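Dear support,

Our group has been running a series of protein-ligand predictions, and this particular one with NAP is the one our PI (initials K.S.) wants archived with full inputs and outputs. We had some confusion internally about which version of the output was final, so please treat the block below as the authoritative record. The input we submitted was:
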Amino acid sequence: MAKRFLNKIAVITGSTEGIGFSIAQRLASEGAKVVVSSRKQEKVTKAVEQLKAENLDCLGVVCHVGKEDDRKKLIEKTVEKYGGIDILVSNAATNPNFGNIFDIDESQWDKLFDTNVKSTFFIIKQAIPYLKQRKDSNVLIISSIAGYSPFQLIAPYSISKTALIGMTKAMAPYCSNLGIRVNCIAPGVIKTKFSQALWNDDKMFNETADCFMKRVGYSDEVASTAAFLCSNDASYITGETIVCAGGTNARL
Ligand code: NAP
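Confirmed final output from the archive:
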């Protein structure tokens, strides 16, 4: 494996399992020092143990991205231990309801947009003073194919993911002046706990994902896309969303 991230420090939110964990594992395997985080201490401990067992350099910090103090602590502990931040991956998200688009109530809507959109915006804002001190730094946002073609069963979640595609475009010009690239990945249906309802049942999968490759994706396939975007192999790419979805139609 290439070592594209030697001397790089990467913070990944929601990274104790699923896509976030695979991204942390991939960046660390390529030489980065990684900070894994999520809400539950036991998951953070387990993720750190797993990465350390692979001889990877990592730190674990409990961080609920919806809590400002937790986001601040995540950034501070990273800088305290490793001395800076080169890569921030905003991956954590929630989906509080399944149903038709109007089944959601206001408190669920607020939770959804606070976690998926507002927290993404503010953790990036909190990290910018550190990212701008480094050379070739990167922000990566994890959206979803549902941000392009809304999944009817999770329509409000889809709307929150469309906002992240817009956020990527909106942040890129300003960040470019600071030497920071901002990109995004829109994964298709990836085999994790989060999307179990979508891949557990073939009929549901075919109706929802409708992808050329006729299979689910895997976290490490998103992680390799993430590694590309955060590396200098993508040095002339910013403000873009890469669809990693086995050929699922993606058009806004
Ligand atoms: P997952 O396997 O369920 O993992 C979610 C991770 O996020 C866990 O480590 C969880 O740990 C953490 N987490 C959940 N809520 C959090 C919060 N409020 N603050 C901080 N950490 C939190 O999910 P996944 O499938 O990997 O999803 C990761 C990202 O990919 C999400 O943005 C999701 O929308 C996106 N995505 C997923 C798919 C898919 O098919 N799986 C498709 C498109 C996009 P704790 O429980 O300890 O917090």
